[in-house]
Design a protein that fits this description.
The structure is a single chain. Strand 4 and strand 5 form a beta hairpin. The strands form two sheets. Strands 1-3-6-8-7 form a five-stranded mixed barrel. It has a two-stranded antiparallel sheet with strand order 4-5. The longest helix has 10 residues. With 144 residues, it is mainly beta.
Length: 144
């Protein structure tokens, strides 16, 4: 069985919820909304129906993402689809989520300040600057 790789650009719908496994591995879960924009016959941009995804990211990437990309941030995600099944109250349930291999801010509508993380154990610098509020430098409308 092969993995299905996906690449998405959208907005985070909630702050990343970070947790740690028993072995100390960080996992961050967040939601993202994706909407395709197309021009209508009048030449005006229209948003298509929204698609909502649950995304998980692991390790130091999870910690860095949780610190850097709050709710409403335009992000890019590259990962693979994972089909989860479980049973609740005797009823079988399932969903498809994305396990991200790469995540980051999408820079068309914002800027980002990059701070390198120390290699090795993933330790963060003692004082990491908070990202500046997103500001568009384009004349066309911001997405969503």
């Amino acid at each position: 069985m092969s993995d299905t790789t996906v690449s998405l650009v959208g907005n985070t719908t909630r702050d990343a919820e970070i947790r740690y496994t028993q072995s100390g591995q960080a996992v961050a879960d967040f939601g993202m909304a994706v909407s395709n924009r197309t021009k209508n016959q009048a030449g005006e941009w229209e948003d298509g129906p929204g698609q909502f995804y649950d995304v998980s990211v692991w390790g130091t990437t999870a910690e860095n993402f949780a610190e850097s990309c709050p709710r409403g941030t335009r992000v890019m995600v590259i990962g693979r689809l994972q089909f989860d099944t479980w049973e609740k109250d005797g009823e079988k349930r399932s969903k498809v989520k994305i396990v991200a291999d790469h995540v980051g801010p999408e820079l068309r509508w914002s800027t980002a300040a990059v701070t390198k993380v120390a290699k090795g154990d993933g330790a963060k610098p003692a004082s990491r600057p908070k990202p500046a509020p997103a500001a568009s430098t384009y004349d066309d409308e911001a997405p969503f």
